[in-house]
Design goal:
Helix content: 40-55%
Radius of gyration: 24 Å
Order of helices and strands: HEEHEEEEEEHHHEEH
Strand order of the largest sheet: 1-2
Oligomer: single chain
Distance between the termini: 39 Å
Strand content: 5-15%
Number of helices: 6
């Protein structure tokens, strides 16, 4: 709270340049806890708003961490902004092609591919922490499904409200879910020939009575 109060005071003092860019009626300065995002339709706008933030912060003893300050140009043109740089308070910010904001990976091409890859990587780490429970013969299948839906699934779907999925990304997510479900339900024994077989996707859907990952 001691940090958030002066930061809030600083943000209210910053007079950002309104050059027409809006997100749901919110203009260029977005703040959550200690993270500040400055949006703008041009490099010039970003620089001036960043300088205004630095000046307002110094007035009450706060400092902008130059080492952690990055900037990204989002454009359909591959070389857009290559000749520009952002420099505030004698510090030059590094230009990046992607960065993580509040747990979500943003890219300069505004693609979801990197975000899906990051989510599945987080899923893999989460899955390995509970895989012994999914292997357990003591726990019921219903309890294993609850473990999947309450522990693993939220990790994968974090920030999914902003996703615009293509067929390739949807396929990756379905493969992920089917892999977990096969671990939960296990193989099926053929009564006639007495051999074990892996369940097909349709069979998994029938056994899994809950909505799938897109439901």
């Amino acid at each position: 709270m001691l940090f958030n109060f002066p930061l809030e005071y600083t943000i209210r003092r910053v007079q950002v340049i309104q050059d027409g860019l809006q997100l749901d009626g919110t203009h260029q300065l977005l703040v959550y806890t200690k993270d500040v995002n400055i949006l703008g339709g041009s490099i010039h706008t970003i620089k001036e708003n960043a300088e205004a933030l630095v000046v307002a912060s110094k007035e009450i003893g706060l400092e902008v961490n130059a080492d952690k300050s990055k900037y990204m140009v989002m454009s359909r043109e591959q070389n857009a902004g290559q000749s520009h740089s952002t420099k505030t308070d004698n510090s030059t910010s590094e230009r990046v092609e992607e960065f993580k904001c509040l747990g979500t990976t943003l890219t300069n091409q505004n693609t979801i591919k990197v975000e899906i890859k990051s989510s599945l990587k987080s899923w893999n780490a989460c899955y390995h922490t509970v895989q012994n429970l999914l292997f357990s013969s003591v726990l019921s299948k219903n309890l294993k499904i609850k473990i999947y839906r309450t522990i693993i699934l939220p990790v994968v779907l974090y920030g999914c409200e902003t996703w615009s999925l293509k067929l390739r990304e949807k396929h990756k997510l379905r493969v992920f879910e089917n892999r977990v479900l096969r671990r939960i339900f296990g193989p099926e024994r053929e009564e006639i020939i007495g051999e074990w077989k892996k369940l097909h996707n349709e069979e998994l859907s029938d056994l899994y009575s809950s909505p799938n990952i897109f439901g």
